[in-house]
Each structure stands twice: as C-alpha cells, then as structure tokens.
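User: structure tokens for this one?
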Amino acid sequence: MSSGAPPLLEVHDLRVRFDVEDGVVRALDGVSFSVEAGETLALVGESGAGKTVAGLSLLGLVPPPGRIDGGRILLRGRDLVPLDERRLRRVRGAAIAMVFQDPLAALNPVLTIGDQIGEALRLHLGLSRPERRARAAALLTEVGIGGGARRLRDYPHQLSGGERQRAMIAMALSCRPALLVADEPTSALDPTVQAAVIELMQRLQRELGTGILLISHDLGAVARMADRVAVVYAGRIVEEGPAEAVFARPRHPYTWGLLDSAPRLDAPRGRRLPAIPGSPPSLRAVPAGCPFHPRCRSRRPVCEASRPELRPVGPAQRAACVLDADEAAVERRAPAAEPAR
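Assistant:
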C-alpha cells in the first residue's frame, strides 16, 4: 500500500540487551521492519520472543536494565534512538501511542478515566479543562463506552474488561498519533468483546489513517487485522510477508508450526493438534546457527553451523531458512510426531 513515499516507521537492525547478573539477554538481535501509514503489521511468536520489547523500544520504554544496543528507529525519517527523555515525552502519545496488554495494570487506579485521557490532551494539545472534558467524553462515545460525561468520573476498577480496553484505546488515540502500538489488545477479552475491539481499531484506522503495529500470539486476530506479518523467534525475524501469503504458504518451519498448532473449525473431529516440540531457547544462550534448529523436524546439518539470513521466497515474502519453496511444501505435509499425552 506504499505510494512511493518513505514508510511511516522504519526500524533498522534494532538490538536490545539486558545486562543481568548471570549474563546478557539479547532480547532483540538485529530486527528490521517497517509500517506504512494506514497499514497494520503484526509481530507474532511465542511468549518471550521479543515482540513486546520491540514495541516498548519505539517509545523509549524498555525497562532497566534493558537498553537499546544498536540500530535505528525512524519515524517519518527522524531517528528516535538518540532522543533524550524530554524529547521522547513529546513523541509519546502525540506521534506514537501504545495500547498495553493489561489495561487494569496500565491505568492509574487512583485517577478517573476522564483525568487520564485529559492528561495527554493537556500535555500535547494544551486544551483547557472544559475542552479536555468535552473531548474525553466524545472519545469515550467514539470507542463505544456509553454514558458520555458521566463515565469520565469512573475509576478503572468500575469498568468491565472490555470497557477498560476501549478506554485505553481512547487514551492512545486522543491526540491522533500517526502510529499505534497494540500489545495483545484482545488477549484478556471474551470472543464477542475481542471481535468488537478489533472492529473498533479497524474503523478508527480507516478514519484516521493510523499505522498499527500489532503484537500478538492470537493468529485469529492477526488474520483479521494484519496487512503484513513478521514472525519473531528468539529475538529475530524468521519470516515476513503479506498476511495472506504467510498464512497460505508459510516458508519457515516455525511459522507453519504455529499455524498448524492453532485450532481449526474444519479439522477432523477428535484430531489432536500437533505441537512444536521443546521450548523456546533462553535468550542468554541462543543456539548457534539457526536458533530454531533444536526444535525443527526439517533441520539439515547446515542449520547447526550457520545462521540463515532472510531471503526472498515469494512475492514480497522472505524467510530465514535453507529450505526452498518445494522442500518447504513437502516437509510441511510430512506427518508430525504425535504430541505427548
């Protein structure tokens, strides 16, 4: 969906490390991706892969002892990595906003929803108190929380889970940011509310032209929302491409492992879901070569010796795997070992 202009967001060779007592945790090890205005890019993978760290890095919110150890984060051509805290505060909320995974933990329990939405409007737009209240009430209505000005007096614990998530979205979009980072925005919601939140984000994206970085392990939400997908494993992107292509023709064994282990309505009744064997590696000691090779049923001897780089495997699709397209198709069809009972 690019028009020839530079992407809204460009991340180049981003590296994030945590210096801990027993070593160095390389949470991100050379990650690159981009997001266009009005586009949704999904980062998917198991817990601990580095997805959330990537989102926090964009806002300069990597918690200590973590730090960005290299790379560039370009927002409309401006590198955010060298910015100090004072300059980053001008970016957060105004240009980039984040919907956190747990809204109850992210919202301040002793401030009303109206005060929390109004804070960003005061800092970034300089609105007066009456203007802030009017705008906050309109935002709550816009995201589907009825009651208008009356609900501004509610505290986070007085809202349902779905309402808290909607309030977080209202807060994030209050200053009309160019980029929204949505970290597992539907993970704690029931299916009906999940669908409503996804529809809300898509509608607001169409109206505002906002770019969205969706961080999720929910492949259903990714399939509904994402234009492109980047699969993250052990702090690295192992496959990326248009969502339709990645879902229909995954080229990396980790990607098809994730897809095959997801429940399907058209699966034979009583069939056990295949599982990816083993566990993700410790980011303190990522295996040499391909980081996925200890868990991969399609590994070759070369996989243990050298780290494959992302290479073209289809139109606009890349994968970090030695298998070519035909080999990947054959290997995926091969029967997998039954998961342990």
